[in-house]
Amino acid sequence: MNSSESENREPHRIAVVGGGLSGLVSCYRLLELSRGSTQPPQIDLFEQSDRLGGVFGTVPHDGYLIETGADMFITNNPGAIRLVERLGLTNRLIETNARYRRSLILKNGKPLPTPVGFDLMAPRNLLAYVRSPLISIPGKLRALSEYFIPGRPQADESLASFAIRRFGREAFERMIQPMIGGIYTADPEKLSLRSTLPRFLEMEEQYGSLLKAIRKEKQNPLKGADNEASGARYSLFLSFDQGMSVLQDSLIDAIKGHVTLQTGVGIQNIERKQNRYLVTRCNGTTSEYDGVILALPTHAAGQILSQFDPDLTAALQKIEYASAAVAVFGMPLSNSQHPLDCFGLVVPAVERRQILAVSCTSRKFNGRAPEGHIQLRVFMGGAMQQELLEKSDEELIAIARQELADIFGIQGPEDFSRVVRWNRAMPQYHVGHQEKVHFIEERFSTYPALEMAGNGLHGVGIPDVVRTAEQAAERCWQQFNRSA
User: Fold this and answer.
1) What is the dihedral of CA 79, 84, 85, 89, to 10 degrees?
2) Domain match, 253 and 335 both
3) Of 4, 20, 216, 374, which residue is 20 to 30 A from 437 by alpha carbon distance?
4) Are residues 206 and 134 in the same domain?
5) Does residue 416 lie within any of the structural domains?
6) Is the pLDDT of residue 470 over 90?
7) 169 with 225, same domain?
8) Environment class of 158 (CB within 10 Å of its CB; exposed 0-12, middle 13-18, buried 19+)
């Protein structure tokens, strides 16, 4: 294409469907890619709700900063931190509070410290592991025997199958399930290790044993310091001085004026018309686009594509989602008999409680609660307790309040309480997820400039969401510039 043809053609039109974090990042990346272009694209973003950002955000309330979604992000996966740098937000970052960098696990109704160096599944500090009261002596001996158990690498395996095979049932039930369950809110009998924590499968493949792999890594001077970090590696997590909405608001400010932002506008369906896409809004109006990025849960994307590609729709809707609720409390610290000197507590399923975890949000980061007060977030629901989500907000508050009283001895008046619901927001990466993703991506690749973003395929963390959104934008942009 010569310069005169480039100047005379109409700008490409791109629809981004979904105004959560992945949709905002997709728009921002498209603008980055088009800088200096003689014909920057016309970008329309559609969000069905009345606000941008999805569940992600920070709400100020009487001296508290309430996080409605994620309250931090990890930096060893570079997607998010690189975006933060490009947005010029580095000076707004804050680290976790070193004073409270530990977590608790519930055992027989009592909160006990997680052993230093426990890395989600594998103990990196054997002395701390042996000394922990979380597991019985026979359970510890069984876990430590993992060193001598021959490896049987699998193409994929459930969390429960792998953990029990390597470390035994007690270690799985008392430590591994609650730690990983607190991240993925999934059924451990179904959760795919290959799609969530492949490094553990790779450790077995390479060394035959996770404990042998840890021993080898400790002998590597380039990794030694990292291997001695605490299990959750809290020093790798960051947030912003005024909460996670700093990221969301900066993205909105960066794209405002360059992207047409349409809130309260849902998309009913998409059809293919020659080399373009007909995007029909829920009010019946239709517009044509050269490219579309679906920044949505897979079940929502599948519904939109149902008239376009039924096989793709069926594949997208095979990915199951769970719902969760978070009961958020603000209260005087004096309400608690426990010092709450930790980042949070996870609850094993074998404890048969009605909560999954408690996050001490204002212990993680300064400025989340007034002096002498604390902000707690209590997580409920998930794949194992979906029935709880049928209860009202008032009932969930009452359940969370009773659990906090039983576990921490919390009593007394609160400054506030509220419930945040994540309805069908937690994708379940079951065994076989990789095969589903392969089919879905193969199918998408047959349609130029039709892309998928979000957390449904390649990771639920903020860095994963940022990376997949940027890659979707890059693939879409490349379709328009191959002949340039």
Assistant:
1) -170
2) no
3) 20
4) yes
5) yes
6) yes
7) yes
8) buried
Pair (254, 227) in one structural domain: no
- State the Cα–Cα distance between residues 390 and 420, nearest whole angstrom: 14
Q: CATH number of the domain that 265 lies in? A: 3.50.50.60
Q: Tokens 């991240």 appear where?
A: 183
> CA 209, CA 183: separation in Å to the nearest integer?
24
Please check whether residues 279 and 294 belong to one and the same domain: yes
Does residue 288 lie within any of the structural domains?
yes
- Rg of the chain over Cα atoms, rounded to whole angstroms, equals 24
Task: Mark whether 407 and 463 lie in a shared domain.
Answer: no
Mean pLDDT calculated for residue range 84-110: 97
* Nearest alpha carbon to residue 386 among 350, 421, 359: 421
Helix H or strand E encompassing 311: helix 310-317
Q: Is 238 a domain residue? A: no
Say if residue 333 is in the same domain as residue 293. Answer: no
Reported confidence tier of residue 296, pLDDT bands at 50, 70, 90: very high
Which CATH number is 338's domain given?
3.90.660.20
- The per-residue DSSP string of 233-280 comes to -GGGEEEETT-THHHHHHHHHHHBTTEEEEET--EEEEEEETTEEEEE
Span 127-181, pLDDT tens digits: 999 999 999 999 999 999 999 999 998 889 999 999 999 999 999 999 999 998 8
Q: In the 8-state DSSP scheme, what is residue 176?
A: I
Q: What average pLDDT does this structure show over 449-476?
A: 96
Residues 222, 140 share a domain: yes
The angle, 0 to 180 degrees and rounded to 10, between the axes of the packed helices 177-184 and 159-167 is 160
DSSP 367: T
3-state DSSP helix/strand/coil % of the chain, to nearest 5: 40, 25, 35
Contact 16, 27 (CB under 8 A): yes
**Residue 224 DSSP symbol:** H
The average pLDDT across 357-383 equals 96
How far apart (Å, rounded) are the C-alpha atoms in residues 286 and 359? Answer: 45
SS3 call for 191: strand
Q: Mean pLDDT lowest for which of 83-92, 173-182, 348-357, 446-455?
A: 173-182
DSSP assignments along 312-338, one per residue: HHHHHHTS-EEEEEEEEEEEEGGG-SS
Q: How many domains does the chain have?
A: 3
Q: What is the value of pTM for the model shown?
A: 0.92
Whether the per-residue pLDDT at 10 is higher than 60: the answer is: yes
Report d(CA 190, CA 243) in Å as an integer: 34
